[in-house]
Amino acid sequence: MNIDLTETNASAVASALVRARRSAGSPAMGMVLTLVVVTDEAGRYDAMKTAAAVSSEHAARVLGIIRRSARGSARLDATIKIGNNASGEAVLLRTSGELVRHAESVVLPLLLPDSPVVVWWPQHAPDDLAGDPLGELAQRRISDSASGTRGKHGSLLAQARNYSPGNTDLAWTRLTPWRALLAAALDQHPAKTTGAEVAAERGNPSAELMAAWLETRLGVDVNRKVSRGPGITDVRLRSRHGDLAITRPPSGRSATFSIPGEADRPVALKRRDVDELLAEELRRLDEDDVFAEVMRCVASRSNDSSDSKPRKRSAPTGKKAATKARS
Amino acid sequence: MSQLGVDNHSNPLRDPQDRRMPRIAGPCSLVIFGVTGDLSRKKLMPAVYDLANRGLLPPGFSLVGFARRDWAHQDFAQIVHDAVKEHSRTGFREEVWNQLAEGFRFVPGDFSDDDAFERLRLTVAELDEVRGTGGNHAFYLSIPPRFFPDVIGQLKAHGLAEADGESWRRVVVEKPFGHDLASARELNDVVSQVFPPEAVFRIDHYLGKETVQNILALRFANNMFEPVWNGRYVDHVQITMAEDIGIGGRAGYYDSIGAARDVIQNHLLQLMALVAMEDPINFEAGSLRIEKQKVLASVQLPDDLGRHTARGQYAAGWAGGVKVGGYLDEKDIPSSSTTETFAAIRLEIGTRRWGGVPFFLRTGKRLGRRVTEVAVMFKKAPHLPFTDTQTEALGRNALVMRIQPDEGATLRFGAKVPGTAMEIRDVNMDFAYGGAFVESSPEAYERLILDVLLGDPPLFPQHEEVELSWQILDPIIDYWAKHGQPEQYPSGIWGPKSADEMLARDGRSWRRP
């Protein structure tokens, strides 16, 4: 069921939600969180679809925020979606005029009582998520550096410099299967690591995070290599007996898992869709300590490299960028 | 936890803070005996695939099938493939399949065949070599218990039961764990001669269900239920596991077992223990076991078993719009069979918390619908400032934990009927587990297989619990054996009249689940 409300306000939207629930015959609310999606007209279809998919795992009230032109008088239009095979409910809120700078005033009355709030910026996340008026309402703030428009690495760096607890980035989420495999490799072959290397397409923020993670965890320098992608293509840990490596060919959904002294094995390592990434994010809503540590490392690496040599336009993940963190 | 499958301390990439990182089992293999059976095809093999699909199996994980079939490895792979395609919970992905399929091995042979077990030993050694399974192997006995002595003896004789160094060997057995106390002890002797207690995993798939684990969360993570969780407020507890189907093709097995042994001994007594136990000091296997054992050990049977137990056999009737035959008409069931297909018993727990609170356990086949639930029924308020007519439709407050299907919890209480008159009627407040969280919550077998591979034992009953359960059930079954035929009840209703009378004697009645 779709309900359109034009030139409306938050309380009218709230009562329309209650009415819609009652008329659907099930006035009880089983929703566990509010998911605020900050999007635009071009991205709204995909973003709301993804949010609805996630809602089937974590029943949520999804509030999509679109900021239209700031000119003209303040105005709010809303579209409510309930049912249509989705659990939870979704509202698309279009703000225009002066209201675009006060979208949080629309969102606040529509938050579910006493339950977590998550804000997700599929694109164009602000540099300081926690300082953003919408971000301030949330326990969890999710950006995606890989979707940044001003240089992917730049987005990640901005996130790292402004990191605050509760922030997270889908570039980090994408790494979970890789990290699990690397940990499994060290389980199987518990050798002392003497070095590491990450190969990925240029400017890939996940590769940056992977390198920082390995560096903080293993205390070794991590060599960076540029490959043709997509994403990360190869991560290897060097040990006295040889390399522990996970390699994903450009075509592949599966990767090769190699450890010294044993035959290579195929392992499934599909690039995951955004709804799977988002679902993973929503499983835990407390601070991700490991990510915090990694972001500190990313921020300090960039400080070090900008201290030692004047920053060039290109990201410090250049071709022969064997970036060293602590000298 | 003393012995996880992986050593978290030595691996710098693992960190207890890193809660995104899935609990992946360490390098290992799973050897399934009786791999051609129903359980294996419908549950075990799909669960293994689902685990792999969720990325929870280690890269070199291997699956070995053992059965009396003349198969090559590829034939076995084909069987697994079909089983996975048909029964897996998560979607079929070629790359996951390829990862798994490389680790498939099949060993043909009989349980008494020395050569076959020698081949198994070589296969396992080869896996250690080629797949890096590191000497860690779990043996899943998906076979009738009468074969246990053979298989366990063979495992020992061929050196498959001992692990060296850090590696492990585990054995997994399925219910029934015996058919009475004596046979349970016998079975345990067989297993424990070869495997130490911590290497024996008894699967009660009920305990792997998310909602059963949620009983612990509901009870021990919340403050509002604990104060009323005792005999002062609770009138009685009803634990029901009902099935709408008959015995299907399991005549041979079922007729020698019956409803009480099949369901009450394991599932219902375990559920009762979880509902009734005191809070454990932590959630480690040992602590949970102590509390569950205390409950089981303090169970008191009614003095008059005839008045406080009931049993029945389904007769022909109409169930859910289908005309069905009775138990005695089933194929391969002798017409003189006294096996019960419905069993209800009243137990009390002799502790300060539960003194005087009866626990009613019932299970049956061909009942009204398929449902498992635990209903905690509260006492009526000591004083009602309303007239009798105003509260005529007010029943007992209840907290119902719905285990399956439609997992969740229901709180039942009185509310005013809208209108000018004061009239109070029962309403339900509902929490749907499926709707609020994971629509795709993992199958019980996935959780349990993963726990076996991780060596994480909290969800597995230990031998002491099994023995205690039989001690509770044996006198009842003996009594029934001396008292002739169970009462017939038409298929599709909620059991025999004697079950209703049994509660009516106490001034109570069964909830319609």
Describe the protein's architecture and organization.
The complex is a heterodimer of chains A (about 325) and B (about 525). Chain A is of the alpha/beta class and about 325 residues long. Chain A has two domains: about 1-170; about 175-270. Helix content of chain A is about 30%, strand content about 25%. Chain A has helices at about 10-25, 45-55, 105, 150-160, 170-175, 175-190, 205-220, 275-285, 290-310, and strands at about 1-5, 35-40, 60-65, 75-80, 90-95, 115-120, 140-145, 165-170, 195-200, 220-225, 230-240, 240-245, 255-260, 265-270. Chain A has an eight-stranded mixed beta sheet with strand order 1-4-5-3-2-6-7-8, sandwiched between helices. In chain A, a hairpin with a 2-residue loop joins β11 and β12 (about 240-245). Chain B is α/β, with parallel strands linked by helices and about 525 residues long. Chain B has two domains: about 30-205, Rossmann fold, CATH 3.40.50; about 210-380 and about 460-505, 2-Layer Sandwich (Dihydrodipicolinate Reductase, domain 2), CATH 3.30.360. Helix content of chain B is about 35%, strand content about 20%. The longest helix of chain B has 19 residues, at about 260-275.
CATH topology of the largest domain in chain B: Dihydrodipicolinate Reductase, domain 2
Shape of chain A: elongated
Outline the low-pLDDT stretches of chain B: 1-9
- State the CATH class of the largest domain in chain B: Alpha Beta
Weakly predicted, low-confidence segments of chain A: 307-327
Mean pLDDT level of chain A: 85
Show the helix and strand layout:
The complex is a heterodimer of chains A (327) and B (513).
Chain A: E1 2-5, H1 10-23, E2 33-39, H2 44-55, E3 60-67, E4 75-82, E5 89-96, H3 103-107, E6 117-120, E7 140-143, H4 152-161, E8 167-169, H5 170-173, H6 176-188, E9 193-200, H7 205-218, E10 222-226, E11 232-239, E12 242-247, E13 254-258, E14 265-268, H8 274-283, H9 289-308
Parallel strand pairs in A: 2-3, 2-6, 3-5, 6-7, 7-8, 9-10
Antiparallel strand pairs in A: 1-4, 4-5, 9-11, 11-12, 12-13, 13-14
Helix pairs in contact in A: 2-8, 4-9, 7-9
Chain B: E1 29-33, H1 38-53, E2 62-67, H2 73-87, H3 94-101, E3 104-108, H4 114-130, E4 137-141, H5 148-157, E5 169-174, H6 181-194, E6 200-203, H7 210-220, E7 234-242, H8 251-255, H9 258-276, H10 285-297, E8 299-300, H11 305-308, E9 309-315, E10 317-319, E11 322-324, E12 342-349, E13 358-364, E14 371-378, E15 398-404, E16 408-416, E17 424-432, H12 433-436, H13 444-454, H14 463-481, E18 487-490, H15 497-504
